[in-house]
Each structure stands twice: as C-alpha cells, then as structure tokens.
C-alpha cells in the first residue's frame, strides 16, 4: 500500500503544535520520490549486468570456436548442397591382365525449376526435339502444374548438354554426377551385369549394381576404402572376345535360338571366358520382358551359362562310367549288355535313331559310341543311392558358387523320387537338369585328377584346394575314354590337331511345358577338356535349338552343331593361352621335301 501524503493523524498533531500541514505533504512526497528513484536505479543496474554477461558469453564462445579451429588440422570445406553426402565413388573392374572392363565417367544430369522458367511450352518442345523419348505435351504439363523441381534426364552426353545449354532457359539446370561406363560394349555383358542410380541428389548420385558381378559384389565396389583398388576378374579380355565372336558366328550359321560357352581353368576354377547369346550392352541395359508367355531365354538379359537349366543329355554318361570304375564294378574294357531296346517295366530304352550296337560293348566303347542301353546297364550296377551321392558330390544338387547374383537362383532340377528307372534315365542326362556352369565344374573335377573345385570369376593367387571325388586313376581312365570320343566317336569334328581335345557330346530333346518332349527341338552340348595328355582347361558349349542345313539332310545332333563350334574356339584360344601345339612326328620312312 502506498503511504498517504497527508496522513490525518499527523495533520491534526501539526495543527495543535502550530505547524503548517503542507510541509508534511512535501516531506512525504520527497521520501516517495527518493524510494522510486532507488528502485529504478536498481533495475537499470540489473539490466546492465545481464547485458554485460551476454556480451562476455557471446565473445567468449566465438573466441573458443576460433581457438578450436586454429588447433585442428586444415581440411577442404564440405558442401551443404543436396546430395553432398551421397557416396558416388565406385571401384573399377579389370580383367586378369589389368585391362578395364568397367570404370566411371563424369557426366551431368538435367533438371528443371519450373517456377523460374521463362517459356515452359517452348522449352518443352525444344527438349522433345533433343530427346525423342520425351513427349512435349506431357513435359509441358509437368512444367506448369506447380512443381518446384523436376528431373528431366538422369544422364546427358556432352553433345546433348550443349544443345540444352543453347535453349537458354534459366529454369534448366545441370547437376554433376558419375556414371558407369563399359568401354567394351557387349563384351562380357552377362558377367558384368550393369548398374543404375540409387540415391540421387542435384550434385551427385549413387551408382548401384543391378545384375551380374556388379550386383553380387556391390558392397565391395562401393566401399570407399576400396575405391582406388580395382576389382580384378579371372576373365581374359582377348579370350572373351574370341569366344563371343566364334560362338556368335556358330549360333548364326546353325540357326540356333541361343548359345552359351564357358572356358575354365580346370586346376584353379578360374573362369577365363563366359558368354551367353543373345547379349546386350550394359551401357544401355534393356528392360526385362513383360510378356508372360515368353520364355526366360527369350530375353537378352538371361544368362544361359548360369541361369539356363537344361537336360544336358549324353554328357552325363561319363559320370556313370567314372563312378563304376571308382567303385571297382567295371574297367574300361569290361563288357556290358547293349542289346536294344532295353525293356524296363513298361518302358523301352532305345538308342539314337533306333540303332543297335549289338549284344555287347566295352565300357570304353559305350562312351565312345554314346550307347544309352550300355550306360543304363552300368548305372544299374551302381544303384540309385550311390548314384545320387556321387552326383551330389559333383555339385548337381545345389546352385554353383560363382560370384554372380543370378547363380543362387539357378538350382538344378532333380527328381523327387529316385527309383531304378530314374537311375537309368539320369545316366544319360534325362530327367535331371543343370546349367552349363554345373557341367563345366563337374568336368573340371575329371580333368584335374579328381578334385572338386569352386568356380570363380575373381583372379586367384596360389594353389587351390578342394574335395577329392575320385581317384587320379579313375580320372585318367575317364580322360582316355573322352579322348576316344573325339578321335573315333561322336565328336570327331572336335579334334583340333596339336591340342589333344577330349570330350563328350550331348543331344537332349527339349521338354514341353505341357509334358513330354519336342521331336524337332533340342539342346546340344559339347563338354571338352584339353590337352588330353595333361588337361588344363575345360570348355563347355551349349546351343539352343540348333539346325545344320548345310547338308542335303538337316542335322540337329551335337556332333554336327556344338562340336565344330567348340573346336573352332579351341583352335583360336589355345595359342592365346600359350599352349604350344603338340605335333605328331613324321614317320621314319616318310618322304619329305627339301630345298637347297
């Protein structure tokens, strides 16, 4: 409560004492003013104190920050623009000799800010003229619907960038980014796979793998710590180019729907070349097929060498023969019943073209002449359980471990039940389906002395170890039988002078989706190894629906289709791999020409 200026008690007392009452009011007014002044001064002093503390704290913080910056190591400033945190760096991919298969290239993206455009309609029409895939009307609608940001093109060539720049509209802007470049075009396309953009910003974009080894080893290729270290593959660019050239020519000449080839080092498991046709350019990767009625192999993206799961026919016969020799049931000279047809229950096992090879053949002749009945008799000696176990040890029950994202999905088709009839049909490659990669790995086990190795697309250093699936003696005998197939059997067109090719043909009827088999559609395979005296390399060639029309009678068997293609591949790649031809010495009584 405020003190009254003229308190009644004091006024009455002053009057009795003869004092003037106004003096009391003046004194009280003076005291009140002094109290108010003291209060205002205290408030002002407090505000000055707070202001001083604030200034001291602010300048102290600035000084401390400047001291910290002065004490730290110097570094480049980081941009705060959108996309600055996107990791765009990706390691190169080289072949085994250091030649580039995939690398990065600096390019630009095109985006628009419609709110600052001068002429949206004219700009849309000019962009459609530069990029035919763009629709001018649709682009104009996007420019005028109120958006503040629009991607126009994710990648521009230098020529396209210059044309866009000449449009001159301030609403068209460029953003720097890295893109993946495959300088060899379609070469090794199914191995590399391809990339696309992941997280995107104006200043950069994340490059991620979408297929092949780019997808399978995406984490390794995107690792900033490994960005300066190229990923070295086992492929040899020269061998890859040669294999693709010969395979493509063979596919065209033999009217095949598709083709695949795998060239592998039998001792290390390194894949030196792998081709699948038709192919594509990973720089401009096509879209997947949308037709539900189309077969997977109709797409050029389909990797027939790894994803293609086929009945591989008579190429399987050597497995039954090798297992029987390993178990001590037969020798290459043992005689088996080959009377045709072989009746098993209500089924008849016949030879190709209903041929009959007579009452008996040796096991070696069964392989050389490719007798279905003979190898069926051998398989029955082995029995279902042991046959399953052996094929499982060769990898025919699981996907291959090759470093491709498509490999885990290529699981062999194995019968659910395994009665003796399945044992018979499996012995000559029917009723079980696997990829050419599975076959190459299994033949490598025969070629290298009986050791199962893991296929790889990465360059390996040093020796490779694996699980032994057969003895060296069995391996040697199997190679001898395969050599006879080329010298005097169903693959004589595969004999390349000087390189001692050994191998086995396989002609398998294609199964129908509705059941049964086609009469005029086959998958032909030739699995080879060379040189037979000491096998170092395995080559598998597969042709889908080939037809040789060069003779008076059309031919569809592997001996006339896959075999000559494989022979031409070996003839060309063997010198590139440093293999010197082993020429037969002339007879001592032969006449030779000489000149002075």
Any overview of this molecule?
- By secondary structure, the chain is of the alpha+beta class.
- Helices cover 35% and strands 19% of the residues.
- The protein folds into two domains: 93-232, Penicillin-binding protein 2a (Domain 2) (Alpha-Beta Complex); 239-282 and 299-576, Beta-lactamase, CATH 3.40.710.10.
- It has helices at residues 8-16, 21-71, 120-130, 136-144, 158-167, 189-192, 212-216, 218-222, 237-253, 317-326, 363-369, 372-382, 384-393, 420-427, 436-447, 472-488, 562-576; strands at 93-94, 100-112, 150-156, 172-181, 194-200, 205-211, 231-232, 258-265, 271-277, 335-337, 342-344, 347-349, 360-362, 451-452, 467-468, 502-511, 517-530, 537-544.
- Strands 1, 2, 3, 4 and 7 form a five-stranded mixed sheet that branches. Strands 9-8-18-17-16 form a five-stranded antiparallel sheet, with helices on both faces. It has a two-stranded antiparallel ribbon with strand order 5-6.
- α3 (120-130) runs antiparallel to α5 (158-167) and α9 (237-253) runs antiparallel to α17.
- The longest helix is centred in the first third of the chain and has 51 residues, at 21-71.
- It starts with 7 loop residues before the first helix and ends in a 20-residue tail after the last helix.
- The model is unreliable at 75-84 (pLDDT under 50).
Average residue pLDDT: 88
Overall 3D geometry?
elongated
Class per helix and strand makeup: alpha+beta
CATH class of the largest domain: Alpha Beta
Number of strands: 18
Number of helices: 17
Q: How many structural units, i.e. domains?
A: 2
Radius of gyration: 41 Å
Beta-strand percent range: 15-25%
Low-pLDDT sequence parts: 75-84
* CATH architecture grouping of the largest domain: 3-Layer(aba) Sandwich
């Amino acid at each position: 409560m405020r003190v009254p200026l003229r308190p009644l008690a004091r006024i009455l007392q002053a009057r009795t004492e003869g004092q003037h009452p106004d003096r009391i009011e003046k004194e009280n007014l003076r005291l009140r003013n002094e109290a108010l002044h003291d209060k205002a001064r205290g408030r002002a002093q407090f505000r000055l104190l707070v202001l001083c503390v604030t200034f001291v704290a602010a300048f102290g913080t600035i000084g401390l920050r400047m001291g910290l910056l002065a004490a730290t190591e110097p570094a480049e400033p980081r941009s705060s623009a959108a996309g600055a945190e996107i990791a765009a760096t990706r390691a190169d991919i080289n072949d085994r000799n250091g030649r580039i298969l995939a690398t990065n290239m600096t390019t630009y993206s095109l985006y628009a800010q419609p709110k600052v455009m001068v002429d949206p309609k004219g700009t849309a029409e000019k962009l459609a003229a530069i990029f035919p895939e763009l629709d001018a009307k649709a682009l104009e609608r996007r420019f005028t619907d109120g958006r503040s940001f629009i991607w126009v093109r994710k990648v521009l060539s230098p020529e396209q960038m210059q044309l866009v720049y000449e449009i001159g509209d301030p609403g068209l802007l460029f953003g720097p980014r890295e893109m993946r470049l495959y300088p060899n075009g379609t070469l090794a396309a199914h191995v590399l796979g391809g990339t696309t953009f992941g997280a995107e910003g104006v200043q950069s974009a994340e490059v991620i793998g979408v297929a092949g080894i780019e997808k399978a080893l995406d984490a390794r290729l995107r690792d900033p710590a490994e960005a300066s270290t190229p990923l070295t593959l086992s492929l040899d660019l020269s061998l890859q180019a040669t294999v693709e050239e010969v395979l493509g020519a063979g596919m065209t000449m033999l009217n095949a729907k598709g083709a695949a080839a795998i060239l592998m080092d039998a001792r290390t498991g390194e894949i030196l070349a792998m081709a699948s046709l038709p192919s594509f350019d990973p720089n401009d990767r096509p879209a997947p097929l949308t037709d539900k009625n189309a077969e997977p192999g109709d797409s050029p993206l389909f990797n027939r060498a790894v994803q293609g799961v086929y009945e591989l026919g008579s190429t399987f016969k050597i497995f039954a023969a090798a297992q029987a020799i390993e178990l001590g049931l037969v020798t290459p000279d043992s005689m088996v019943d080959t009377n045709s047809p072989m009746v098993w229950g209500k089924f008849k096992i016949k030879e190709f073209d209903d041929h009959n090879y007579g009452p008996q053949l040796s096991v070696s002749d069964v392989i050389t002449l490719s007798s279905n009945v003979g190898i069926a008799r051998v398989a029955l000696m082995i029995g279902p359980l042991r046959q399953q176990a052996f094929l499982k040890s060769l990898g025919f029950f699981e996907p291959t471990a090759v470093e491709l994202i498509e490999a885990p999905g290529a699981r062999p088709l194995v019968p659910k039940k395994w009665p003796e009839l399945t044992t018979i049909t499996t012995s000559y490659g029917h009723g079980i389906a696997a990829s050419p990669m599975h076959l190459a790995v299994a033949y490598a086990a025969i070629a290298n002395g009986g050791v199962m190795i893991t296929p790889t697309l990465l360059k390996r250093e040093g020796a490779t170890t694996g699980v032994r699936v057969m003895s060296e003696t069995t391996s040697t005998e199997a190679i001898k039988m395969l050599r006879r197939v080329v010298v005097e059997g169903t693959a004589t067109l595969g004999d390349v002078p000087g390189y001692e090719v050994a191998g086995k043909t396989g002609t398998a009827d294609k199964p129908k989706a509705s059941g049964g088999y086609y009469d005029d559609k086959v998958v032909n395979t030739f699995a080879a190894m060379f040189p037979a005296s000491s096998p170092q390399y395995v080559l598998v060639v597969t042709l889908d629906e080939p037809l040789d029309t060069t003779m008076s009678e059309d031919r569809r068997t592997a001996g006339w289709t896959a075999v000559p293609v494989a022979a031409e591949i070996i003839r060309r790649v063997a010198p590139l791999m440093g293999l010197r031809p082993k020429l037969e010495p002339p007879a001592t009584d032969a006449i030779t020409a000489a000149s002075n």
